[in-house]
């Protein structure tokens, strides 16, 4: 006998639902069951569709919607759950038909029939109410619950950090855009125009120095004239007069 994935997942999911329903008295979403038990939501939807048709669970819609157990837990056996999803615990190859070997009963037919009977009886006597009170099962459920909460907090923190980073980037872009559009202030204009102003001032200083130099030369010339009583002759005139009055050396008296 081999219990397939469908039967095992159905029992696991319904036991999870029973634990949550008994502790919190609220509907449980398939997404929470999927996270705790690591079962895909699409697979759970198929299983719970069968369980709902068999009257083992009920569904509610809305923001707080989900699934709840439809019967008292002591009335739902493990065999009920397995049968609800069309599973079997029959260990016989012929599935009770008695045609195991060339259309006839095989040598070990009765052996596997007895095993199948005992398995079915055992699973029929184990209910969800019995399982949820087992200490080991409750410890495992608590560990899974904490892991789910920690993962949820991490996801929320990552999402918050991502949104904060996006907001910061957008704020930086807005600041850069505003700086480009903002007109220059008086201080910035003065700083920008300062080099040309300094150049103008330097030019004026040079002109003033040149004018002062010319004035000083003119004053010196006037002072010399007043002191000696004669006006200095131009260089060309002095040179010409000197050449006119110059006599040859041989005509000079001995």
TL;DR of this structure?
One of its GO terms (molecular function) is DNA-binding transcription factor activity. Residues 217-228 have a biased composition (Polar residues). With 254 residues, this protein is mainly alpha-helical.
Structure notes:
- The protein has 254 residues and is mainly alpha-helical.
- Among the domains are: 115 residues, Winged helix-like DNA-binding domain superfamily/Winged helix DNA-binding domain (Arc Repressor Mutant, subunit A, Orthogonal Bundle), CATH 1.10.10; 36 residues.
- The protein contains 9 helices and 2 strands.
- A two-stranded antiparallel sheet has the order 1-2.
- α1 packs across α2 and α1 crosses α3.
- The longest helix has 47 residues.
- The chain is elongated.
Strand content: under 5%
Structural class: mainly alpha
* Quaternary structure classification: single chain
DSSP E strands, number: 2
State mean pLDDT (0 to 100 scale).
78
Overall 3D form? elongated
CATH superfamily of the domain at 5-96 and 111-133: Winged helix-like DNA-binding domain superfamily/Winged helix DNA-binding domain
Give the distance, in angstroms, between the N- and C-terminal Cα atoms. 165 Å
Order of helices and strands: HHHEEHHHHHH
Q: Can you summarize the main beta sheet?
A: 2 strands, antiparallel
Give the CATH architecture of the domain at 5-96 and 111-133.
Answer: Orthogonal Bundle
Output the CATH class name of the domain at 5-96 and 111-133: Mainly Alpha
Helical region count? 9
**Lateral arrangement of strands in the main beta sheet:** 1-2
Region (Disordered): 167-254
InterPro entries: TR_Rrf2-type_CS, Tscrpt_reg_Rrf2, WH-like_DNA-bd_sf, WH_DNA-bd_sf
Biased composition (Low complexity): 167-177
Keywords: DNA-binding
